[in-house]
């Protein structure tokens, strides 16, 4: 490998890291260095932009330790047989880069992933050393997210959890068949085993913190994973079921979806073009339906068409409501929270406001309009003090009334 300076390495390894989607920093403990001790913070505004649940923008230095890899996964730009320019950081270079970017107020934390070099254990050792040095040698209090390696020694993964806020293990593809076909060197059993071990360590860490204040924190922001969409034949229904299983079995904080992107010198078994980006967006919406709106995976999957795909022209919650019109309209002044969560166009904050306001008075349609972006989308599915919709069960044109309008965009519009 040719000798490269730090700037050249950064250009290569920051670009190579763009395929990792799972870099949100929500859920971790709040830390700062306002007392004059240490450096860094997990709070406030801070080259990857992630958003916390309260809307804060967190800037992360998002890089690979190296884009060299001993594996040859068909879908990966950094696979062993790929004709790309290679680079590698030392652990100390990553540490110094992180501190330098933080001191310039460019970032609030680090997202570090890597190709596999030499062995899984050796690679994991280098990543752990980055986190250890930042925490112990430089007292860095900012956010750290490490991508862990399923085949690495569990002791190394445990050491990573003692220094990082969040750990993640990529499930790679939605189905075992897809993984066996496109990444035969990886194993569903090993990935699931590593996720299970990580969940157990996180649970044990939480229990220890409840009993002993001095117990060390272990990955306080939990674990996440990422799956590639569109590289194999898995449909949206299968992806939704896979994500639901990951949440239930391993207590995932997030499942991230990354639309497959065609790569140079691609294998003949890969698709020739990427899936619509809207498909990725619809999967994230379906994910939110399960996490925040009380939908089961089978219910979300019911919004798919005959081929198991979510519609691209409307969000899955609306598609579900159009299929199950018999449970609508919902009385905004009487319905329980569970029923309101299923009304298209009503978000969790709007529903919380409705539940509070209706304790003191009966709500009218104009009250709901102030809480939602589009009252036209909501109106056919609810009853208010001054509003009762007609023909909700049998209106064949209901989709035309509530689905987003398709507009021709103007090239030179102001």
Automatic annotation (TrEMBL):
Keywords for this protein: Iron, Iron-sulfur, Metal-binding, S-adenosyl-L-methionine
InterPro entries: Aldolase_TIM, DNA_rSAM_put, Endo/Exo/Phosphatase_dom_1, rSAM, rSAM_sf, RuvA_2-like
SUPFAM superfamilies: Radical SAM enzymes (SSF102114), RuvA domain 2-like (SSF47781)
Cofactor(s) the record lists: [4Fe-4S] cluster
Signal peptide annotation: none
Superkingdom field: Bacteria
Keyword RNA-binding: no
Protein name, entry field: DNA modification/repair radical SAM protein
Organism for this UniProt entry: Sphingomonas natans
């Amino acid at each position: 490998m040719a000798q490269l300076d730090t700037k050249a390495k950064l250009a290569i390894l920051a670009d190579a890291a763009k395929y990792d989607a799972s870099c949100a920093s929500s859920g971790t403990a709040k830390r700062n260095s306002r007392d004059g001790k240490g450096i860094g913070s997990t709070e406030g505004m801070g080259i990857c932009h992630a958003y916390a649940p309260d809307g804060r923008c967190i800037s992360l230095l998002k890089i690979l330790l190296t884009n060299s890899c001993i594996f040859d996964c068909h879908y990966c730009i950094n696979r062993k047989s790929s004709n790309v320019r290679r680079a590698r950081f030392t652990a100390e270079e990553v540490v110094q880069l992180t501190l330098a970017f933080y001191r310039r107020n460019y970032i609030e934390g680090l997202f570090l992933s890597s190709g596999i070099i030499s062995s899984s254990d050796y690679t994991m050792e280098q990543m752990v050393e980055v986190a250890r040095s930042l925490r112990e040698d430089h007292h860095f209090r900012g956010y750290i997210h490490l991508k862990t390696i399923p085949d690495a020694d569990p002791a190394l993964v445990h050491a990573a959890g003692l220094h990082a806020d969040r750990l993640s293990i990529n499930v790679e593809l939605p189905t075992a068949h897809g993984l066996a076909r496109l990444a035969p060197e990886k194993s569903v059993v090993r990935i699931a085993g590593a996720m299970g071990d990580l969940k157990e360590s996180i649970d044990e860490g939480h229990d220890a913190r409840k009993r002993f204040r001095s117990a060390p924190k272990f990955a306080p922001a939990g674990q996440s994973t990422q799956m590639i969409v569109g590289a194999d034949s898995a449909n949206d229904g299968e992806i939704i079921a896979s994500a639901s299983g990951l949440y239930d079995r391993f207590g995932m904080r997030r499942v991230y979806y990354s639309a497959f992107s065609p790569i140079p010198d691609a294998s003949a078994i890969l698709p020739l073009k990427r899936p619509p980006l809207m498909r990725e967006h619809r999967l994230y919406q379906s994910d939110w339906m399960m996490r925040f709106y009380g939908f089961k995976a089978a219910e979300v999957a019911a919004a798919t068409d005959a081929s198991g795909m979510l519609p691209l022209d409307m969000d899955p919650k609306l598609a579900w409501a159009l299929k199950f019109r018999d449970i609508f309209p919902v009385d905004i002044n009487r319905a329980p929270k569970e029923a309101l969560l299923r009304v298209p166009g009503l978000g969790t904050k709007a529903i919380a406001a409705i539940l509070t306001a209706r304790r003191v008075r009966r709500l009218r349609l104009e009250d709901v309009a102030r809480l939602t972006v589009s009252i036209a989308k909501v109106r056919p599915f609810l009853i208010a003090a001054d509003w009762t919709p007609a023909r909700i069960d049998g209106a064949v044109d209901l989709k035309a009334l509530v689905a987003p309008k398709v507009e021709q965009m103007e090239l030179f519009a102001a």
